[in-house]
Amino acid sequence: PGLHVLAVALALEVSVGKTNTVMALNNSNVLLPCTFTTCIGFQDLDFTWYFNSTELIYHGKIKSKASEPLLLDRNPRVEFVGSTTGKDNNISILLKNVEFSDAGKYTCNVKNPKEKNLQHNATIFLTVVQKMVETDNTVTLIIVGVVGGLIGLLILFMLVKRVVLFIIKKIQDGKKECLVSSSGNDNTENGLAGSKAEQKAPPKA
After folding, report:
1. Distance CA 32, CA 49 (A)
2. Which residue of 17, 112, 150, 204 has the fewest C-beta atoms within 10 A of its own C-beta?
3. What spans are recorded as compositionally biased (Polar residues) (predicted)?
4. C-alpha to C-alpha distances, 193 to 173, 188, 196, 199, nearest whole angstrom
5. Residue 21 domain flag
6. Of 86, 84, 87, which is closest to residue 110 (Cα–Cα)?
7. CB within 8 A of 188, min separation 6: which ones?
8. What is the DSSP letter of 124?
9. In terms of pTM, does the model score above 0.85?
């Protein structure tokens, strides 16, 4: 089990960045990002890009960290724009003159002989549009503002309610103390019924 955990920790990882979706204008060029990391290094690493899982659009090999990838096969409209001799092992590609038929799933696949040729991959989805539509966030901002204002008012109301209840409780406690102390004083000092002042000595026989 310990060796298995170590192998998992050293495994090569492939990433297409924070989001796996890309939008591109028809007839434009689009970058399809992909990077990989490994703790054990690599040698004769093989990487491929596939369109919709089956169509190979780029195939390259990297001899070592000190050398740039060697092109083995590619689609004429695909250009390698990454680099593996720098800090990041970047194997990104540029797809030129994007068409609507290019929309779909792109898979970046990496195979490292040092890991017994285990394969790792990451997927990115491309959407092709005629024109970019600017998102109008006015309604969203209004809704967020209204909701935020209501939450603020609710919090203010709850605070005011707690303060008012606290004041009312203090006033009521104060009245109770006054009633207790005044009733005792009045009965004793003014000689009301049941007080010590009215208790007369028993008649002599």
Report:
1. 10
2. 204
3. 180-190
4. 27, 10, 9, 9
5. yes
6. 84
7. 195, 196, 197
8. E
9. no
Cα separation, 11 vs 2, whole angstroms: 14
User: Does a structural domain hold residue 122?
Assistant: yes
Domain range for residue 92? 14-129
- Tokens found for residue 105: 């799933």
Q: Where residue 106 sits, what CATH number does that domain have?
A: 2.60.40.10
Token readout for 191 is: 């000689």
Provide DSSP, 85-96. Answer: SSSSEE--EEE-
Instruction: Give the pLDDT confidence of 156-177 residue by residue, as tens digits.
Output: 888 888 888 888 887 777 655 5
State how far Cα 62 lies from the chain centre.
34
| Domain presence at residue 161 | no
Q: How far apart are CA 69 and CA 79, in angstroms?
A: 12
For the chain, the domain total comes to 1
The letter for the amino acid at 36 is F
Between β-strands 89-90 and 35-37, what pairing exists: parallel, antiparallel or unpaired? antiparallel
| Nearest to 110, CA basis, from 35, 40, 54 | 35
Beta-carbon neighbour count of residue 112 at 10 Å? 23
What token pair was written down for 33?
A: 């990002």
Residue 29 lies in a domain: yes
Q: Which of 1-5, 67-71, 93-97, 107-111 has the lowest mean pLDDT?
A: 1-5
The order of strands in the sheet holding 78-80 is: 30-32, 93-95, 78-80
Alpha helices by DSSP H, listed for 50-195, are 138-189
